Amino acid sequence: MEGQPLNLTHMITRQLATKSLLLLLSLIVIFHLLVLLKLVPYDVVWGSKFDSYNSLLPFEIGSLVLNLSFILLVRHRNRNADSKIGRIGMWLMFVLFALNTIGNLFAETMTEKLTATPLTLILALLSLRLAQKTDQKA
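^ that's the sequence the OP posted. Answer follows.
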């Protein structure tokens, strides 16, 4: 299989990838809501780069909107397996999560490295699975 892209269609079912992505993204949305409600301290997110709750607010709202959009995209892809828009969206999610994984490897805090890196890697692989055509040959 040298020179061929990673084909996850035989390793992870479409249903498992969809359910897993929806679960993880929903948990991420809940986490960001807890941060917005000040139930999670602002200094434990975003690599502790913000010095106040107010400076963090636009990033948390953006993250919340983005993750809710991802949930809608995964649901769209699940309902419309042949959708070109859904496939392109899933490829974009894969690239974003893959880049985020690389960034998390260089995080300043060990907590972020140990929690966010595996999470974004899993999200990237699940997104890649849904980006692939179901009838793709190995």
